Automatic annotation (TrEMBL):
InterPro entries, per the entry: FhaA_N, FhaA_N_sf
Name of this chain's protein: DUF3662 domain-containing protein
Stretches assigned to the FhaA N-terminal domain: 2-110
Length: 128
């Protein structure tokens, strides 16, 4: 458990440098998107979306691209750990796509979908 905290703190520090805001907000929003769309199938099975899109304001996205960031991979790791802690089951292979979008808060917007039986890269480029 301690190792996971160290990794998450490193990821948060990286995101803080990039986003210039509290990255915990983005990570919490991603976890919340997962939780809000969880479907209880039985006592032992809770199904959650497996395809997430994080739309970033153009300036934030451009800054990440210039740094060669792998934010999509970090967000996927955070989400995978969250689901494991909650005992969630994915609808298919987990993917997190980072894209540019017109976002209302000027920072990010998160959406999700359940896409069953697809290869991890089939829904589009993984993005940063």
């Amino acid at each position: 458990m301690r190792w996971e905290r160290v990794v998450e703190e490193c990821e948060s520090a990286l995101l803080a440098k990039v986003f210039r805001t509290d990255p915990v907000q983005l990570l919490d929003a991603l976890r919340e998107e997962c939780d809000e769309h969880a479907i209880v199938c039985s006592q032992s099975r809770v199904l959650v979306p497996n395809d997430y899109t994080v739309e970033l304001a153009k300036g934030v996205h451009d800054e990440l691209a210039a740094r060669g960031g792998q934010v999509g991979w970090h967000l996927t790791d955070v989400l995978a750990r969250h689901a494991a802690e909650r005992g969630y089951e994915w609808a298919g292979p987990l993917t997190v796509h980072v894209t540019v979008g017109e976002v209302p808060n000027g920072r990010y917007r998160i959406s999700s979908a359940a896409l069953a039986h697809i290869p991890a890269g089939a829904a589009g480029p993984r993005g940063m």
